[in-house]
Amino acid sequence: MSLAESWDRYAVGSKPRRTMNAKGDTTWLNWTQYADHGPNESLLGPVAGRRVLELGSGSGSNLAHLVTLGATGQGVDIAPARETVARERWGNLPGLDFRTAEATAFLNETDETFDVVLSIFGAVWFVDPDILLPLIRSRMAPGGILAFSHLPPGGQGPKPAKAGLRHDRTLDEWSRILTGHGFSDVRVSLIDPPEGRAVGTMLVRALAA
C-alpha cells in the first residue's frame, strides 16, 4: 500500500469536524487536538488579502475560516478523500481551492508565492524538515509567516505513525532547523492541555527572512 493510499484509508475513517463550535461559530481555526481549546487565527496577524497555503488541509475547515476573513486559500492534502470532503463542504466559498498532492511534489511544481503557510498536524510533522522546509521557504513571500502545530516530541527522530513517519523535534531543535533554512523570529511554545487531559500541543511560528 502506498503512502497516499494509507492516508486515504485513514481519512475515510476519520470523524468529520463539527459544523458549529461551542461559541456557535460555523468557521474557526483550531491549532490543537482538542475542541474549543488554544489560540485562534490572531497568531497570523491580519489575513485579509493574503495568499494562504495549508499543507495537510484535511476537511478544509481551518483554511475555510481564513478565507471567510478575506484570505485566498490553497489547500493541499495527500489523501483524495480529504479533497472530496473539503469541496463538498466548502466548495461554495470564492477564493478557496483544494488539491490532492504530496506536499513536496506540490511545492516543486507550483510557481505561486504565499504569504502564509500552515500545517496543523500536517505535512511538517510527516515530511523530513530538511527536505520540506527549503521548499516551503522557496514559495514564500519575504516576511511571510509559517505556522504549524503537532504533538510534543515523544523522543528523538522519526517515529512510526498510522501512515508514514512522524518527525518529532524538540523546541530547541525546531528553532535551530528553521533558522538554518532561512527563517527568522522563530517562536516555539507548548500549549497546555485542557483540564483533565495530559498531552499538550507544540505550536511553532516563524518568518521568511
Automatic annotation (TrEMBL):
<dbReference type="Pfam" id="PF08241">
    <property type="entry name" value="Methyltransf_11"/>
</dbReference>
<feature type="domain" description="Methyltransferase type 11">
    <location>
        <begin position="53"/>
        <end position="148"/>
    </location>
</feature>
<dbReference type="GO" id="GO:0017000">
    <property type="term" value="P:antibiotic biosynthetic process"/>
</dbReference>
<dbReference type="InterPro" id="IPR013216">
    <property type="entry name" value="Methyltransf_11"/>
</dbReference>
<dbReference type="GO" id="GO:0008757">
    <property type="term" value="F:S-adenosylmethionine-dependent methyltransferase activity"/>
</dbReference>
<dbReference type="GO" id="GO:0032259">
    <property type="term" value="P:methylation"/>
</dbReference>
<keyword id="KW-0808">Transferase</keyword>
<keyword id="KW-0489">Methyltransferase</keyword>
<dbReference type="InterPro" id="IPR029063">
    <property type="entry name" value="SAM-dependent_MTases_sf"/>
</dbReference>
<protein>
    <submittedName>
        <fullName>Methyltransferase type 11</fullName>
    </submittedName>
</protein>
